[in-house]
Design a protein that fits this description.
Strands 3, 4, 6 and 10 form a 4-stranded antiparallel sheet that branches. The chain contains 13 helices and 17 strands. It is of the alpha+beta class and 491 residues long.
Amino acid sequence: MASYVVNSVEAAVEGAAVEDVLEYVKTLKVQELKDHIRVINENLPWTQHLRVTGNKPSLASNLSEVIQAYADAPLRYNQMLLLFAPLGFYGFAQHLRRLRDAMNSGAGSGYYGRIPEQGLRSTGVDAHSYSGSSHASGASVNPSLSTQQLRFRPSPFYEIKEFVSSILQVPEAPPATGRRQIVVAFTLSEKQTSLLNDIPGRYQLRLFSTTFDHYIAAVSGVQIPAPVEFPYTSEVRINERSLGVSLKGSKKHAGRVSPPNLNRNGAVHVQAGRVNRVEISYANTPQRHVVVIALCKVTTAKELTEELKARQFRSKEEVVQRMRERAGDEDVLTGASTLKLVCPLTYMRMVIPCRSNICDHIQCFDAYSFYSMNEQSPLWLCPVCNQQIQSADLRMDGYVEGILERVPMDLETVLVEPDGAWHSLDGQYNEHSRVMNHALTIKEGTPLSDSGDETVPMTPPLDADTDLAPSSDPFCVPADVIDLTFDSDAE
């Protein structure tokens, strides 16, 4: 599924007057000035390296000088402002625009002289700018510049429809600083509450997070979709109730945690205009992050399995033809191999046998079990060969399905010949045996529950850092599986 592309913050910050940006610099504290200078040094190689030491006047002077130096170079100037946006400039620009609109209408005559500092700067992005329109409401757009967009990596389990909260910066929390906390507040519109209430389970509010570096890559010219990645040690509360989910993910691999459903415990106020409060406490986080809440359309593991059966099917004839072609290749050594009829993930008999079309081994795994595990922890690794795969790569295997239909439920292995013929170890069952097991439903054949966030495998869930190496699983012994991934050049 394609992820929904959400409008980014550039509409409100691009082309901002230099005077406004310099006024913003005056409101920054010492640490905030250093943060702005660091983000310039780390992301803008065409600028002179700026010192991050010194007192507030010297830091502000250095930052102001570089802003003025690139004011006449729109592309670089706007790229700099885009980096400032999640650090507080977006909130500043939005408040400034609203104050000016109010003053123009006569409602803001109470403000005089310098814009009030309190409440003006905010690391949050105004939730009302995320309406799904082509640009932020009321913000000016520079048509000569390309649209910068924030996207997260797509997932078959959800599709982002719109952001409903601010995009909030999560500062670093080194071990010495202890635990830190941020709060994200949001309200829902009538349309959003209607979707959440009228179609239970189809739409959810999910909490997304990524590192600041991934955020920059997603909204810069490169526009690399950001992985979901939370501060490594973090806890979430929604309206004073613990969310009760692990957001640990993986230190080695970004994107191996799912954005949690904020209403999994029924704590969200699904009423138009009522404020919801999300508290995120975290520690041991050396990198900055950003967080945002999105309204998502959800697809369950059961629905993905049904779609696989209907649209992504590899027939028995196609599988056998491919096996025979490989058997006829003189460079490939083939022989009878053992095919396991139990899923290597759950140790239960497969119901919907599937494998990736980029994998050449005949060994399959159960589709619903695979989807259910990845719904909880999105590793997307083939449990047979440990290769990175995608949902779109999966195919239901008609050949293995035919075997499952012709052997007793307690038979766990068969021997497969290179030409596609198969038989049980005692020779009692083979491809000519009558059909004894008609297609089972997902509910009958799987040990996993289809209750949304409560989906739990019967076997302990895998840790996100655990590799599904074939050698570590008794069902993934290379000698027992027809492995067509090797050729003579691989040696």
